Amino acid sequence: MNRNFVEDDIRLQLLKHIGNSSCHLTQRDCADYLGLSLGKTHYCLTELIKKGYVKATRFKNSRNKAAYAYVLTPQGIEEKLHLLMQFLRRTKNEYQMLEQEIAQLTQELGTHSTNDLPDRI
């Protein structure tokens, strides 16, 4: 997979997670959600903040002396929609290619139906 696609997917997932969250998120929450290291998550959040897609507001928390609330900016909402459209377009293309490949493989099998295939090959 192209490196830009991976970075876009991480950025999209992070923007979606922040946008869907109604409570204060920590970087650790985001890292756990994304399945990334805390360092990588910190880097991604910092880049989103630098680009103006996310605003970090500091607040006092009893567990952590100082924590941040992450909020999408209007530019962040636009970026999320842009990335969603890219992701949907790419996924539809992959789906169409898979449909074509399935059709070709089914044709190669001749009269056999894909329903006749075992679950494990």
CATH class: Mainly Alpha
N to C succession of SSEs: HHHEEH
CATH homology superfamily name: Winged helix-like DNA-binding domain superfamily/Winged helix DNA-binding domain
Integer average pLDDT: 85
Structural class: mainly alpha
From the structure above, extract its key features.
121 residues, mainly alpha, Arc Repressor Mutant, subunit A
In short, what is this structure?
The chain is mainly alpha-helical and about 120 residues long.
Give an account of the 3D structure.
The chain is mainly alpha-helical and 121 residues long. Helix content is 61%, strand content 12%. It has a two-stranded antiparallel sheet. A hairpin with a 5-residue loop joins strand 1 and strand 2. The longest helix has 35 residues. The protein starts with a helix and ends in a 13-residue tail after the last helix.
List the helices and strands and how they pair.
Blueprint: H1 3-20, H2 27-34, H3 38-50, E1 54-60, E2 66-72, H4 74-108
Antiparallel strand pairs: 1-2
